C-alpha cells in the first residue's frame, strides 16, 4: 500500500521532473520579462527564386537571456503557447513585422519583399487575432499582400470551420498564407483544398537527404504535383547545399530558403546586403 511504499517511490515529482518543471517556470517568467523590457529580436532569413533573386524574408524570433543564454524558439515557443504568453508575444512579432514592412516601403531595394511571420495555433484561435492583424496593417499603412502568415497543419485539427473562416477573412484583404512544415502533419487532401493558401513549405526533413533518398524525392514530387494542381507556390525549407538546390530545382521546386542562401540575420544586415547585391 501507499504507506509501505513510502515517500521515496512517489512517481509524481522525481528530481528530474522537478528540474524540468523549474526550468519551465524560469523560462516562462524570464520570457515575460524579456517581452516587457523589449529584449526580443526578429531575425530574417531570405527566400529566393530559382534565379537566386531574394523575393521575401521569414521572421524568426531570437532571445538571449543573461542567465539562460541564447534560447531556441523550439524550446520557448511551446512554453509561451501553453502559458498563454504567446498572445502578447505573437502581437509583438506582428507589430514588429508590420513596422519593418513599413520601413521597407520607402526603400527601392526592399519595397517588393514579402515578410512571413510564424503563427501559433493558440494565437490563431484567439478571438482578437483577425482584428489585431487588420489593425497592425492599417496602423503601419502597408500593403496586406506583403504580409505572409505561416500556419501549420496542427491548426486544422480542431475547429476546422473556424480556421477556414478566419483564414478567408484575412485572405480577402490580401494577406497570404503559407502552410509551414508541410508533410509532417495531419492535413488531409480534402482539407487542403478548402484552405485559401498561397504557398506550401516543404519541411526540411524531406530536403535533408534529397540527393540520396528516393523516398524523399517521391514525397517532394508529390508535394510539387499537389501544389501545381491546387495553384500554390511551393517553397523548400532547410536547403543547405548546392546539390540539394540543384536536385530540388530539377524536381520543379521554384522557391528556396535555407543556410545555403543565408542564415537568419538582423534586419539591418539584409538592408545593407541587398543594397549591395540587388539594386
Ligand atoms: P520554422 O518556421 O519551420 O522555421 C525554420 C527553422 O529552420 C528556423 O529555426 C530556421 O532558423 C531553421 N533553418 C533555416 N534554414 C535552415 C537550414 O538550412 N538548415 C537547418 N538545419 N535549419 C534551418 P528556428 O529559428 O530555431 O525556429 C524554430 C521554429 O520556431 C520555427 O520553425 C517556428 O515554428 C518557431 N518560431 C520561430 N519564430 C517564431 C515566432 O515568431 N512565432 C512563432 N509562433 N513561432 C516561431
Ligand atoms: Mg513568398
Ligand atoms: Mg516558418
Ligand atoms: Mg518550417
From TrEMBL:
Keywords for the protein's UniProt record, in alphabetical order: Membrane, Transmembrane, Transmembrane helix
* EAL domain mapped to chain residues: 24-278
Q: What is this protein called?
A: Periplasmic sensor diguanylate cyclase/phosphodiesterase
| Species | Pseudidiomarina planktonica
Amino acid at each position: 500500500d501507499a504507506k509501505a511504499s513510502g515517500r521515496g517511490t512517489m512517481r509524481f515529482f522525481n528530481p528530474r521532473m522537478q528540474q524540468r518543471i523549474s526550468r519551465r517556470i524560469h523560462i516562462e517568467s524570464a520570457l515575460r520579462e524579456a517581452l516587457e523590457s523589449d529584449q526580443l529580436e526578429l531575425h530574417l532569413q531570405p527566400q529566393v527564386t530559382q534565379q537566386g533573386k531574394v523575393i521575401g524574408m521569414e521572421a524568426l524570433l531570437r532571445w538571449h537571456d543573461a542567465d539562460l543564454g541564447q534560447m531556441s524558439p523550439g524550446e520557448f515557443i511551446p512554453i509561451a503557447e501553453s502559458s498563454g504568453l504567446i498572445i502578447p508575444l505573437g502581437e509583438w512579432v506582428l507589430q514588429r513585422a508590420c513596422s519593418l514592412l513599413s520601413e521597407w516601403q520607402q526603400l527601392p531595394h526592399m519595397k517588393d519583399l514579402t515578410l512571413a511571420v510564424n503563427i501559433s495555433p493558440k494565437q490563431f484561435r484567439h478571438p482578437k487575432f483577425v482584428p489585431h492583424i487588420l489593425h497592425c496593417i492599417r496602423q503601419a499603412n502597408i500593403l496586406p499582400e506583403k504580409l505572409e502568415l505561416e500556419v501549420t497543419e496542427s491548426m486544422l485539427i480542431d475547429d476546422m470551420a473556424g480556421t477556414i473562416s478566419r483564414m478567408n477573412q484575412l485572405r480577402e484583404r490580401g494577406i497570404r498564407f503559407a502552410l509551414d512544415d508541410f508533410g509532417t502533419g495531419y492535413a488531409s487532401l480534402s482539407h487542403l483544398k478548402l484552405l485559401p493558401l498561397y504557398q506550401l513549405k516543404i519541411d526540411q526533413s524531406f530536403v535533408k537527404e534529397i540527393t540520396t533518398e528516393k523516398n524523399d524525392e517521391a514525397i517532394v514530387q508529390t508535394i510539387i504535383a499537389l501544389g501545381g494542381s491546387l495553384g500554390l507556390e511551393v517553397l523548400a525549407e532547410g536547403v543547405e547545399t548546392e546539390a540539394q538546390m540543384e536536385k530540388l530545382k530539377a524536381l520543379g521546386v521554384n522557391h528556396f530558403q535555407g543556410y545555403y542562401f543565408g542564415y537568419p540575420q538582423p534586419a539591418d544586415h539584409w538592408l545593407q546586403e541587398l543594397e549591395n547585391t540587388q539594386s
